[in-house]
Amino acid sequence: MNYEKLSKQALGCMYTAEILGDIIFLVIIGAVNYFWLIPKDIGMGKIISLILAVYTVGAMLIEPYFRYNRYRYSINEECIDIREGYLFVKRNIVPIERLHKLETSKGPIDQLFHVAKVKVTTAGGDVTLRFLEEEKAEQIAENLRKRINEIVKEQREEDGEED
User: Fold this and answer.
1) In the prediction, which pLDDT does 134 show?
2) What is the CB-side half-sphere exposure of residue 77 using CA atoms within 13 A?
3) Can you give the residue ranges of every domain in the chain?
């Protein structure tokens, strides 16, 4: 099976989202320290805050790189196969004939980097192809929509023959 990689825009989007989220987390850690741990002189809390801050800064720099390099997807006539993860790699395989709904979306950070998501809904849950170039996302959604329509047409023809 041939897996496709993400574009370089995806890496920028991952770094931006990670940095923004981690900055918010660091501000919360700082506020907890300033308003609670420092005035009450809770030493263990200060140590834990320092460890969390160091980990957060490290994750901010390292996590997007590994997520980008591990993210792969493949779409063929039978299934959608997505591999992603940072510390643990998760693999989602969705049979094409199980698809019920397709949705493309772009958040504010996605729009800055011209990437989009394709969310695939099945009876068993949702799977999302993330960080795709906008044109690629639209192309994938359109191809999947056509394939779903073909499957529905085949099923109707089979049901018509059985009657």
Assistant:
1) 96
2) 2
3) 1-163
Cα–Cα distance for residue pair 83/138, rounded to 1 Å: 20
Is 80 exceeded by the pLDDT of residue 109? yes
- Give pTM, 2 decimals: 0.84
DSSP 107-155: -HHHHHHTEEEEEEEETTEEEEEEEEEHHHHHHHHHHHHHHHHHHHHHH
Residue predicted with more confidence, 135 or 37: 135
CA 98 → CA 5, 23, 73, 147, distances in Å? 24, 40, 18, 11
Residue 18 has pLDDT above 90, yes or no: yes
Q: What angle do CA 88, 55, 72 make, to 5 degrees?
A: 30
Distances (CA, A) of 31 to 57, 86, 138: 17, 28, 42
- One of 3.30.1300.10, 2.30.29.30, 1.20.210.10, 3.20.20.70 is the CATH number of 1-163, namely 2.30.29.30
Nearest of 112, 116, 76, 110 to residue 96 by alpha carbon: 76
Q: What is the DSSP letter of 78?
A: S
Long-range CB pairs of 36-40 (<8 Å, 24+ gap) are none
